[in-house]
UniProtKB/TrEMBL annotation:
Residues 5-107 form the RNA-binding protein Tab2-like N-terminal domain. PANTHER family: PROTEIN TAB2 HOMOLOG, CHLOROPLASTIC (PTHR34556:SF2), PTHR34556. GO terms for molecular function: RNA binding. Pfam families: Tab2-like_C (PF20429), Tab2-like_N (PF06485). This is DUF1092 family protein. Residues 119-275 form the RNA-binding protein Tab2/Atab2 C-terminal domain. InterPro entries: Tab2-like, Tab2-like_C, Tab2-like_N. It comes from Merismopedia glauca CCAP 1448/3.
Length: 276
């Protein structure tokens, strides 16, 4: 077994129609985007044994099975967990499967005229739920840092929960040093570390401003989870939220979430570098 990471999807494929059957498409990509394997399966044959067979077949030209399979689609997760367990491969449920998603989108474009409404990345997401009362912070605010200062500010701090993937660092995204990276800081007081640990389990993915009555700040997490991080009606906060959204557009979607016990700026309980 190698140390490779595969990103895998296995789901109904509406483009494929044959003999009146519903077909599923298996797609495998290396996390580097270097390798792709595809196979079609009639829905009548969809099971973990079929997956085991094709995961093994995908290694014919590779030599070894991967050590980890990443899955972004909830409907694929159960079958892939069963197959991966039989093969001794670890499974990670994560939205961050860029190589796989790029491959699926490119494939869908080739069938755009045939199935114009088909979106291979569409997931059924529940309405956002309020955070549990014991996790609510004392206050929060929008913030930003120049791209040149982001890593230096947080990477070297002794932060109990730190998620700063190298591929998301501004320099690795090719962002200019002067680009403002927007973010949200939550002051949790005594609950700060509890909130950070909970977020670590929830797997933050992105923060989005949703205008409404009231306006909301929504945390996308896990595979399809959505949480109401904050609501507000203040006009000045709404302006700051609009600025936050505009800055995300110029930072390739890069933004951050910071959990701190207070506004002294001296201590952090958790930090996540995020990108939609």
């Amino acid at each position: 077994m190698s140390g490779e990471v595969w990103q895998v999807d296995f789901y109904r494929y509406p483009v494929m129609k044959k003999a009146g059957q519903v077909w599923w498409l298996l797609v495998i990509c290396e996390s580097t985007g270097q390798f792709a394997y595809e196979a079609y399966c009639p829905q009548t044959e969809v099971n973990s044994a079929w997956l085991v067979s094709h995961l093994q077949q995908a290694t014919n030209d590779r030599g070894d099975l991967p050590s980890l399979i990443q899955v972004f689609r909830p409907q694929s997760l159960n079958l892939l967990e069963l197959a991966a367990s039989e093969l001794g491969i670890a499974i990670q449920a994560t939205r961050r499967t860029p190589a796989l998603k790029e491959h699926l989108q490119a494939k869908a474009k080739t069938h755009a005229l045939q199935t114009p409404d088909y979106n291979p990345l569409a997931l059924d997401a529940p309405p956002p739920a309020p955070l549990p009362d014991h996790l609510l912070g004392q206050s929060w605010r929008f913030a930003s840092l120049p791209a040149s200062e982001l890593e230096a500010t947080f990477a070297e701090r002794p932060i109990p929960v730190l998620e700063m993937p190298k591929r998301l660092l501004p320099i690795n995204l090719g962002l200019a040093s002067t680009v403002a990276i927007p973010g949200v800081i939550v002051y949790g007081g005594r609950r700060s570390l509890v909130l950070a640990r909970w977020l670590q389990e929830a797997q933050p993915y992105s923060l989005n401003y949703i205008p409404g009555s009231p306006d909301g700040l929504i945390l996308e997490a896990g595979l399809v989870d959505r949480w109401i991080l904050a609501t507000f009606t203040d006009a000045d906060v709404a302006i700051a939220a609009q600025t936050f959204t505009k800055r995300k557009q110029t930072s390739q979607g890069l933004h951050f979430l910071s959990i701190q016990p207070d506004d002294s700026g001296m201590t952090d309980s958790g930090f996540w570098l995020l990108q939609e």
